[in-house]
Write a structure and sequence with these properties.
The complex is a heterodimer. Chain A is α/β, with parallel strands linked by helices. Chain A has 9 helices and 14 strands. In chain A, α6 (188-197) packs parallel to α7 (214-225) and α7 runs parallel beside α8. The longest helix of chain A has 13 residues, at 19-31. The two termini of chain A are 23 Å apart. The mean pLDDT of chain A is 95. Helices cover 37% and strands 24% of the residues of chain B. The chains are: A alpha/beta, B alpha+beta. At the A-B interface, α4 and α5 of A face α9 and α13 of B.
Chain lengths: 289, 391
């Protein structure tokens, strides 16, 4: 078992023939991901990276039974791509695109919920089930198979964390980048629930950052519902107030959304919080002893 | 992105929001001329800077005559305004807004902002107009009425009634309030605003509501579909280095410390600042060169950081994923050749081809480049170097 994706996942790539789409789809195929089709409007009927290209997601789903979509569509068209995937019967949508207007995501999220569909991201590195499927832009080799689940708002910090987990003698079951935008499709709680129920996961690492209150709600959830050990790191302890730190959602608004309030909430919920980004691996290792 | 009050009022007016009449001026002569054109008897001279709290800082003055408009404008232009919202020394006043003075019956606060928790815009209204809303929220939160508007329903009658009852408006006032609330919400949605604040919203003796002030922020991600709003950007109001970084697609925020950092990825960049602090140092900046760091972006990073004369050491922290560390190592060498880097540069490269990268840096044997074993070692060396103690 694992969460969300595995060898059986049938992936369609939206924005397949573009520069980013081509580069990363190639890497996913090399990793062993079961990419069954691509979609680029106007290029239907062509073959790209050895896979059929369709004009619409609906065509791709009908012809290939794709059930997961990976989106590399530019920001202005990305919400359209998310809605198209949901309307075509895709069950899991992974949106890598950074820079989508927040109102677009707000509408798209409400709509896809009514379709019972799951959105990961946007503005995220994607999702990887180690050794089975890489549906995103992360370097696959860092995520050695094992029994630790990772949930993170960040890209490279996720690779850093996974690397530390591996160096500490463990490995990754599934790692999910949930994205750093103010509104995201799937948050910590949704995934904590899945990891808690997953036979292949023994411990969980969660990486948060300043801005919003998802980590605080996650802490409340962990206290009540999570029995597996959880280690965490919150980035931005030194971030100034009112300044956006790279990610659109990483901003301390007034006095809300600081690293300290999140760290305190997690600690009170029994989570082992690494104060240093160099101690994420050792924090989870201690819990797993 | 922020815009000035004079721009915000013009934009809101185009949606049908009633705003006070006024004009922008950049000299005392122009101010007097604009005041005369307005044809009022009393005026308000308002500093146009991207910061709230102008009144208390001396950025809003009344004038009873055209000569007084001239005098007050002359004093205000060029002054540095320090408010609770400015950082450092404050903001230099380069533009003024000359506005008609109006009679005030009551003052309210009205705002629209994205509620991240509920994932919808929320309208905030209060009878405590003219006050700093954060103070009201902290001291008397019951005086703020919040009404979330689900994007599925849009703004409906029941939302408006909730607001009106909360503000204790009578039937006639309610009708007038809706005349400003409906177009204001439309403006929020259609311009992809991230924040609208009318503080104060004024009820005039004649029973009409009017925006005495207006603050608008926009979702940066949506500016590409609003070129007319993007064109309102006032670059003089923004930090020059941050602005330049943006042009190169780098994300930079200047801080007060002396350890510069160049990192790929926003989360890792924030963490790098954190670990510098944990090791006893102070970060000089946040700098994300992007998930796909390249030799060029690293070189640009060096240029930006070295403009800050406080910087005594630079920590380069790259986790190579898709991007290969050996390429980054060559980029660092290239950058140090092109740019005169006088301060110690501590390099921590991990991930793809990290060993080859270490070898490249060792072979090059450049005096000011120190190689770090891992993240913690990098931070420690950077902090020590900044203190002048070459580790």
């Amino acid at each position: 078992m694992s969460i969300l994706v595995n060898k059986e996942s049938r992936v369609v790539v939206q924005g397949f023939t573009g520069k980013e789409g081509t580069f990363h789809a190639q890497k996913c195929i090399e990793y062993g991901t079961n990419i069954v089709a691509g979609v680029t409007p106007g290029k239907g009927g062509q073959c790209h990276l050895g896979k059929p290209v369709y004009n619409t997601v609906e065509d791709a789903v009908q012809s290939t039974k794709a059930n997961v979509s990976l989106i590399f569509v530019p920001p202005v068209y990305a919400a359209d791509a998310i809605l198209e995937a949901a309307d075509s019967g895709i069950e899991l949508i992974v949106c890598i695109t950074e820079g989508i207007p927040v109102q677009d995501v707000m509408y798209a999220k409400k709509y896809i919920k009514s379709k019972g569909c799951v959105l990961i991201g946007p503005n995220c590195p994607g999702i990887i089930t180690a050794g089975e499927a890489k549906i995103g832009i992360m370097p696959g080799f860092v995520f050695k198979p094992g029994r630790i689940g990772v949930i993170s708002k960040s890209g490279t910090l996720t690779y850093e964390a996974a690397n530390q987990v591996v160096k500490a003698g463990m490995g990754i079951s599934t790692a999910v980048g949930i994205g750093g935008d103010p509104i995201i499709g799937t948050d910590f709680i949704d995934l904590l629930k899945l990891f808690e129920a997953d036979d292949a996961t023994d411990g969980i690492v969660m990486i948060g950052e300043i801005g919003g209150e998802l980590e605080i709600r996650a802490a409340e959830y962990i206290r009540e519902h999570v029995t597996k050990p959880v280690a965490a790191f919150i980035a931005g302890q030194t971030a100034p107030k009112g300044k956006r730190m790279g990610h659109a959602g990483a901003i301390i608004a007034g006095s809300k959304g600081t690293a300290q309030e999140k760290i305190t909430a997690l600690q009170e919920a029994g989570v082992k919080v690494a104060m240093s980004p160099a101690r994420i691996g050792s924090a989870i290792a201690e819990l797993m002893k | 992105m922020n815009i000035h009050e004079y721009q915000a009022k013009k934009l809101l007016h185009s949606f049908g929001v009633k705003v006070t009449r006024g004009s922008k001026a950049t000299s005392p002569e122009e101010a007097r001329h604009k005041a005369k054109e307005l044809g009022s008897e009393n005026w308000v001279v308002k500093a146009q800077v991207h910061a709230g709290g102008r009144g208390k800082a001396g950025g809003i003055k009344f004038a009873m005559s055209l000569d007084e408009v001239f005098e007050k404008s002359e004093k205000m232009l060029g002054m540095t305004l320090k408010t609770h919202q400015t950082v450092g020394a404050g903001k230099v006043v380069r533009k003024l807004y000359i506005q008609e003075a109006i009679d005030i019956e009551r003052e309210y606060y009205l705002g629209i902002v994205l509620d991240r928790r509920r994932e919808m815009p929320v309208i905030m209204a209060s009878t405590e107009g003219g006050m700093d809303i954060e103070t009201v929220a902290a001291e008397t939160p019951e005086k703020i009425i919040k009404v979330g508007v689900d994007p599925i329903t849009g703004l409906k009658g029941y939302h408006l009634r909730k607001l009106a009852y909360g503000l204790k408006l009578n039937k006639a006032e309610m009708k007038e309030f809706n005349k400003i609330m409906i177009p204001l919400f439309e403006a929020y949605q259609k311009t992809d605003a991230s924040l609208i604040e009318i503080n104060p919203l004024v009820l005039k003796p004649d029973g009409e509501f009017i925006a005495l002030d207006a603050k608008l922020n926009f979702d940066d991600n949506a500016l590409m579909r609003h070129p007319e709003i993007a064109a309102m950007r006032d670059e003089e109001e923004e930090d020059a280095a941050e602005l330049e970084a943006g042009k190169y697609d780098l994300s930079y925020v200047k801080l007060d410390g002396n350890v510069g950092c160049i990192v790929n990825g926003a989360g890792l960049a924030m963490s790098t600042m954190d670990i510098i602090k944990l090791e006893g140092g102070e970060p000089a900046n946040f700098l994300d060169v992007g998930g796909n760091a390249s030799a060029e972006t690293v070189a640009r990073g060096f240029e930006l950081i070295l403009r800050d004369k406080n910087v005594k050491a630079i920590l380069v922290n790259i986790f190579g994923g898709i991007v290969r560390c050996d390429r980054i190592a060559n980029g660092i060498l290239e950058a140090t050749r092109q740019i005169d880097v006088q301060v110690p540069v501590i390099v921590r490269l991990d991930g793809t081809n990290a060993e080859e990268a270490g070898e490249i840096l060792k072979q090059a044997n450049i005096r000011q480049i120190l190689i770090a074993e891992d993240l913690q070692d990098g931070a420690r060396k950077a902090v020590k170097s900044a203190e002048g103690d070459r580790a």
